[in-house]
Amino acid sequence: MKFTFYGHACFVIETGGKKFLFDPFISGNELAKDIDINSIEADYILVSHGHGDHVADLVSIAKRTGALVIAAYEIVEWVQKQGITNAHPMNFGPFNFDFGKLHFLPAWHSSVMPDGVYGGNPGGFLMHGAERKFYYSGDTCLMMDMQLIPRYAKLDFAILPVGGNFTMDADDAIIASDFIQCNKIIGIHFDTFGYIKIDHEKTKEKFKAAGKELILPKIGESIEL
Ligand code: NI
Ligand code: MN
Questions:
Q1: Three-state secondary-structure class, residue 54
Q2: Which pLDDT tens digit goes with each residue over 39-61?
Q3: Which residues are within 8 A (CB) of 198 and not within 5 positions of it... i.e. 6 or more apart?
Q4: Separation in Å, CA 186 to CA 38, 79, 119, 162, 170
Q5: pLDDT in tens, 85-119
């Protein structure tokens, strides 16, 4: 099982011979200018919410790959209007896909599409149907609802924002990792904009001091999990 980082909150998880692309935002990310968008393959595209830094390349990659778009009902309505037919609308709850069970879960944030259309409620994903179970919180502050996750699954790792300002920072993500009972965290949503620049070494040290592992992936880097 492999995690590949494309910058900000965009990554691909490869598991069971399938590629799951999350929150496609590459063009417009100055830090990801060396990534060739056309080289990114996907069988599924999972969208946490409608902000530009999560959907900028959604329509183009969905059209090119034909991947199934999985997102909030309102986001699916929006992509269908852009000519994408292979899409699965969700609201908060579980569904058994051909790859296994996936929960779409709440996030405390906001969600509007780049053209101003309402994007429904923002969320995160709990993936049961992979070689290793993982949780991607999406953009959110720390929230008590995360305490439900250990009742659903024993996580192998989690992908959490650590940049602060728009989402949790590292201190909040450490508490979140207690809530979800998972000590292996991949940090995302950092460095892209001025408000979310972090000191990598200090941030990793904080996790280490709390008995946890924080991976801060480099853009373009793949990690075996
Ligand atoms: Ni956002
Ligand atoms: Mn964001």
A1: helix
A2: 999 999 999 999 999 999 999 99
A3: 162, 163, 164, 169, 170, 190, 191
A4: 25, 29, 26, 9, 11
A5: 999 999 999 999 999 999 999 999 999 999 999 99
Residue 130 pLDDT exceeds 90: no
Q: How far is the CA of 46 from the centre of ligand 2 (A)?
A: 14
Q: Note whether residue 225 is domain-resident.
A: no
pLDDT at residue 129 is higher than 90: no
Q: pTM for the full model?
A: 0.98
Looking at the domain assignment, is residue 55 inside a domain? yes
Question: Which domain range does residue 193 map to?
Answer: 2-216
Is residue 140 situated within a structural domain? Answer: yes
Distance 219 CA to ligand 2 centre (A): 16
Domain count, the chain: 1
- 166 CA to centre of ligand 2 in angstroms: 7
Q: Residue 158's pLDDT is what?
A: 98
Q: Can you tell me the mean pLDDT for 8-31? A: 97
Helix (H, G, I), strand (E, B) or coil at 101: strand
Can you point out the beta strands (E) in the chain?
2-5, 11-15, 18-22, 44-46, 68-72, 87-90, 93-97, 100-106, 123-127, 134-136, 157-161, 184-188, 213-215, 222-224
- Ligand 1 centroid to Cα of residue 57, in Å, is 15
Q: For residue 195, what is the domain's CATH number?
A: 3.60.15.10
